[in-house]
Design a protein that fits this description.
- This protein is α/β, with parallel strands linked by helices and 354 residues long.
- It contains ten helices and 17 strands.
- Strands 3, 4, 5, 8, 9, 16 and 17 form a seven-stranded mixed sheet that branches.
- Helix 3 packs across helix 4.
- The longest helix is centred in the middle third of the chain and has 13 residues.
- This is Alcohol dehydrogenase family protein.
- Keywords: NADP, Oxidoreductase.
Length: 354
């Protein structure tokens, strides 16, 4: 089969294009998917570059770093094996099943849940893996995963549109759930023009919250289509003044970086900060007096419970959220697609197709 294969941590040159890579076969309880499209995410970039390593303190650049720790270069803080086929957001048709898997899935169009579970303990986060990290993913013509990691989806959306949802929207829904966002909240979303940021806007609105989006002004028109109540520049010099009378009870952040203390300073007393990324830089400065004197709550969010993916699929089928498909590239051009993703050339999600 055709596949884009990652050979190690480093720059885009670590990808190799193959047209004769062995096609995987489904094992017990597994399904074989003919991939129609696969989304591209920060996890792909950060795993390839080794950015997750504590040896790296800079923003996500997408390039090779001078030093990457051998023991902690991935999201889970442990090594992965190479060669590896990345790609968590696979959408396609089930063409075969392994022993014990439901044969009725053959011929069905499915989306993949990126979180790999120990199904004897599905809520045990210490036993979680990630599709395209701890096992081969969807940057190929075919992919294999556990049947419990797929959902048949009843939707008129294209494969490419469906491939924008799994990682971004389960990440966003997990963040909002950890922060207990309700209709009584006002949620501030930095980086609202990205995949997770756009998902946060839509999913927070779905919960009935008031949403304030932050994005580069050149992207405001596209962000407006997501339905935020207010759109601000990416990093106002005086955020308090820009907010006016708005009272922010939740900051849902995937950006981090030097602007981070400003976001914390505008939270209302008893407010919540939830985080699932730090693309502008993982190292931040916190005044602990702000944290405890204002009774703030901080939550990190990575591994989501199994129901979150199923919930997102339900939102899709009921038309409660919509895809933000920015661009589609041939899988063979993954390097170009990933560079466009890194450069934030597009507003929304980028997808590759075999």
């Amino acid at each position: 089969m055709k596949a884009m294969v990652l050979t190690g941590h480093g720059g885009l040159d670590k990808y190799e294009w193959h047209e004769d890579w062995p096609r995987p076969e489904p094992g017990p309880m597994e399904v074989l998917i003919r991939v129609g499209a696969c989304g591209l995410n920060n996890t792909d970039v950060n795993t390839r570059s080794g950015w997750y390593s504590k040896a790296v303190s800079e923003a996500t650049t997408g390039g090779a770093y001078a030093a990457v720790g051998e023991a902690d270069p991935t999201w889970g803080g442990s090594p992965i094996t190479f060669p590896r086929i990345q790609g968590a957001d696979a959408v396609g048709e089930v063409v075969a099943v392994g022993e014990g898997a439901d044969p009725a899935l053959v011929g069905k169009r499915v989306m993949t849940d990126g979180w790999l579970r120990d199904w004897s303990e599905p809520m045990n986060m210490d036993k979680a893996g990630y599709f395209g990290s701890e096992r081969d993913g969807g940057f190929a013509e075919y992919a294999v995963t556990d049947m419990r990691n797929v959902a048949v989806v009843d939707s008129g959306l294209s494969d490419a549109e469906l491939a924008t949802f799994s990682c971004s929207y389960t990440t966003a829904e997990g963040m909002l759930a950890r922060a207990n966002v309700t209709a009584g909240d006002t949620v501030l979303v930095p980086g609202a023009s990205g995949g997770v940021g756009g998902a946060l806007v839509q999913l927070a609105k779905r919960r009935g919250a008031r949403v304030i989006a932050m994005a580069s002004e050149s992207k405001h028109a596209e962000v407006a289509k997501l339905g935020p109540d207010l759109i601000l520049p990416r990093a106002p010099e005086d955020l308090r003044a820009a907010l006016g009378d708005e009272k922010v009870t939740v900051v849902a952040d995937i950006v981090g970086g030097p602007y981070w203390p400003t976001l914390i300073d505008i939270l209302e007393r008893g407010g919540r900060y939830t985080c699932s990324g730090a693309i502008a830089g993982p190292m931040v400065t916190l005044d602990l007096r702000t944290f405890y004197l204002r009774d703030l709550t901080f939550t990190g969010s990575t591994v989501t419970p199994p129901h979150v993916f199923r919930d997102v699929v339900g939102y899709i089928e009921r038309g409660e959220i919509r895809p933000v498909l920015a661009a589609t590239y041939p899988l063979k051009n993954l390097r170009e697609a990933q560079q466009a993703f890194i450069d934030k050339k597009h507003t929304g999600n980028i997808v590759v197709t075999p």
